[in-house]
Each structure stands twice: as C-alpha cells, then as structure tokens.
Amino acid sequence: MRKLLVLLGVLVLSATVAMAAGPKSYQVTGPVLEVKDDVIVVQKGKDKWEIARDKDTKVSGDLKVGAKVTIQYLMKAIEIDAKGEPKKGKK
Question: Which of 17, 29, 33, 58 could form a disulfide with 70 if both were Cys (CB 3.0 to 4.6 A apart)?
C-alpha cells in the first residue's frame, strides 16, 4: 500500500512539472540577411525578422549571410503596463 501511495505521489508531481514546463517555442526559416553578436536578421516572405541572440544561443553549421537557417525561439515579455480595470458602461 505504501509503494502505491509513493507511486501516486510521483505521478502527481510529474504531471505538475509537465504543466509548468514554460512558454511555447516557435520557429522561423529563411535566408540570413545580417549576422551580429546580439542579433540575426532573417527574411520570412516579404518580412525581415530580427531575432536577439546571446552567448548561450546554440549555433550549428556555418552561420553567415545567405545561409538558409531555421531558428527556434521563445516569446518573452520585457515590460507589462497594466492600466487597471476597464470602465463599466451604463446599462
């Protein structure tokens, strides 16, 4: 009985950790237009995507202008300005 309770506890903990795994990741694919130490610019259709990078960004292959790349990225808020509750209209 004790083993069953321990197993159940482990399963509940695992499910909780899996649900709090973090933000969804996205990807963009296209030719590189510009490469700097802190940013890479990629052409996606008619749009130019500027994606930040740092020393922890993993790069495989030869990253240079003209190379076709697929970039995995996360969206991250850098500032949130909440204005309070919206005003209620008359009914």
Answer: 29
Residue 40 pLDDT > 90, yes or no? yes
pLDDT value at position 12? 58
Burial annotation 22-43 (CB, 10 A radius, 16+ → b, else e): eeeeeeeebebeebeeeebbbe
> How far apart (Å, rounded) are the C-alpha atoms in residues 31 and 72?
14
Say if residues 28 and 70 touch (Cβ distance below 8 Å).
Answer: yes
Does this model's pTM top 0.70? My answer is: no
CA 76 from centroid of its chain's CA atoms: 7
CATH for 20-74, options being 1.10.3470, 2.10.109, 2.60.40, 2.40.50? 2.40.50
